[in-house]
Amino acid sequence: MPHLIWPMRLNPLLHTLMAASICTAVHANTPPAALHTLNNTVYPSIDHHLGERLYPNEAIKAEEIADIIAASIRKQYSSGLALRDAHPKAHGCVRAEFKINETLPKNLAQGVFVPGQTYHAWIRFSNGSRDATQADIKSDARGMAIKLLGVPGKKLLPDEASTQDFIMINHPVFFVNDPDRYISFMQDINGGGVLKKLHIPFALGIKGTWIAFNSRSKISNLLQTRYWSMVPYQLGAGPDRLAVKYSARACSALTAPMPHAPHSNFLREAMRSDLQKADSCMEFLVQPRTSNAMSIEDSMSEWKESQAPFYKVATIRIPQQFFDTPDQNKFCENLSFSPWHARLEHQPLGAINRMRKVIYDRISQVRHEMNSTSRLEPH
């Protein structure tokens, strides 16, 4: 039962998916001008224009979730290398080029999406399960985290001055919306005991449990899989700013067959083999919201492509390379990804993203502290 739900515990996002399957939380109409968490992190302000609404005591609850996850990491990795709380199993970090289309509509040519611009990038591919030893053949959520380098402009977080992160998994929606369900879920996951695990479906609700179950799948190749941001982001900084979601997919529709009796780490092996032979190509897509009915705060509902099409804005070229070396794997583990490593034009939107600012930063601090390493910005 635990691993039925766990993969979505992303970091984020953490993971980041919760829901109103049965009841909807009441939103506060007006947030304080500058909310601070207990660790003095400035909590994000909300964008009324794009439809954000603050949940009651949201900043405090984000801190509580961060406390639960931090305690879990300290317990799980009391000896040895401390890994991420979610997506701890990396298949590898690869060098890439992120080339913006030569021409773009004005409403999409915002922030890093400067027509003709090319950025160097690092991309980390991962499994979602908290068990870093789990075999790749098992159903799981898969992550793709992109870090663009050499990005000019003011950033939303001070720890990285010239990066822009895009964080995605291979499922279009998250399994929770509101802080209360998320806290309950995290308490059940980390509480120990059969009764806590049996309570997980009640914590998530019917819709959240269904999403968590269906977010787990088997894939044959990381470079041929489609990924989604799940949650929305701002695009632009003026009165005409948009709410958008992101996605990445292979340039080719070819799909490798599922291997018979594969090794435990066959996804890493397949990516290593592919990139030793040739370049790989992916498309980066933006999905502008087309109706206010597509709620910023509802991370559990997909924006249907039939109503809100995706537009290709960039091509990701992963050049032929050998990435699987001890030094590069260590470098990969030391990287920190956050949706808040972003320019102002790409501010994360919605409760899940707002909580991520607190949670991701805390977890990164704990992990690096336990490993006696400094958080360094890659160049």
Automatic annotation (TrEMBL):
Signal sequence interval, chain numbering: 1-28
Domain named Catalase core: residues: 84-187
Keyword Cell membrane carried by entry: no
Keywords: Signal
CDD domains membership: y4iL_like
Name used for this protein in its record: Catalase family protein
